[in-house]
């Protein structure tokens, strides 16, 4: 029984362009959804309500993504720090609006392409493999305002053009790709990934039509990747969260099963198995959904399935069929009831390392393709001591317990490619637009009020993770 991490395991860290780069109006970059997202705890509420204007309102809101942590100008310094930790891989995304500023151009923007050339070259200088997400919670604002986001079939063409442009440009530099970040997250929060808030009366119809367009676009990207970079691996990426029934009442067990199938398996079934799952038809019937599927779509989806599943894991969800408002607890996009056996983070996300082992087993049992944990981490308030040290033992404990859970999954027979912790350097939180929700091994002197020097500082976890990588997960 092998309980060791395999040779060549891709240890590293993960980020997203819109949360670290800044340089929002440099290099001929166009406006993206991320550029109009206000900062603060009201972000999610604001983006879940119809009527969001997609306009910048500096009098009312702040826009932390505009500067973020200035990776656009400081990438060499940051990559050197990643190399010092011994990263084998760095998961990042390409900003669509750096390559096609409006999303509709026929030719890509050379300044944007050249920026990522420099980033990839810097990574390779240290032997770090880039793992690139093609679309990570941002899209050209023009495609939102003029086309209605992924509700429009025309976005398939624009996305395919974008994907082909970056495959051609980086075919010798990037061997690991993913199409859409946390594609299934749109079931609960479609604004950032799909570019719209569904009208209440048409919610399911609009949402699942948009999903279909993304599935077609993803399949076209897989097809293009295999043609342009035959030795590359291209995956899908899902937000994974095992769903537990609140108790053993059969109605709660059935409710949890239905929630888990829709959330964890629907998108993965289409992208990995290449077909819509049998359970979705009843859901479509009951919610009056009729997806416009064009001739050739299903064959395309069937013939161009992904090589692996990338997944984020932060927490499990506990569900009860008839829950009251008082019983609901917050989580990562999802909303369940409190699990009495789990503690929670500063932001109310329940901490459940065993849940990672559970979901890895469930996914591998179902799909039998390699799994890649491309996001996992603890958002917390970090305190700098008088001597300048940051003793984030709570983060070390969180990550240690989750790495131990992965090792148990390996013993269970699960095939794992790698592990890239979320926010390896402090960044702007996607859900709240805050700097104070810190995930990194590297502290960035930037604060919610916009102040800060952007100085980088190593936390205690930096040295701990460096040793984890050096021992290939043997010393935790």
UniProtKB/TrEMBL annotation:
The entry sums up its family as follows: Belongs to the glycosyl hydrolase 1 family.
Q: What protein name applies here? A: 6-phospho-beta-glucosidase
Report any one BP term from Gene Ontology: carbohydrate catabolic process
Q: Which Pfam families match?
A: Glyco_hydro_1 (PF00232)
Q: Name one GO cellular component term.
A: cytosol
Enzyme class per UniProt: hydrolase
Matching entries from SUPFAM superfamilies are given as: (Trans)glycosidases
Protein EC: 3.2.1.86
User: Which PANTHER family does this one have?
Assistant: 6-PHOSPHO-BETA-GLUCOSIDASE ASCB-RELATED (PTHR10353:SF122), GLYCOSYL HYDROLASE (PTHR10353)
Q: Which UniProt keywords apply?
A: Glycosidase, Hydrolase
**Active site per the UniProt annotation:** 375 (nucleophile)
Q: Name one GO molecular function term.
A: 6-phospho-beta-glucosidase activity
Q: Which InterPro entries match?
A: GH (IPR017853), GH_1_N_CS (IPR033132), Glyco_hydro_1 (IPR001360), Glyco_hydro_1_AS (IPR018120)
**Signal peptide span per the entry?**
none
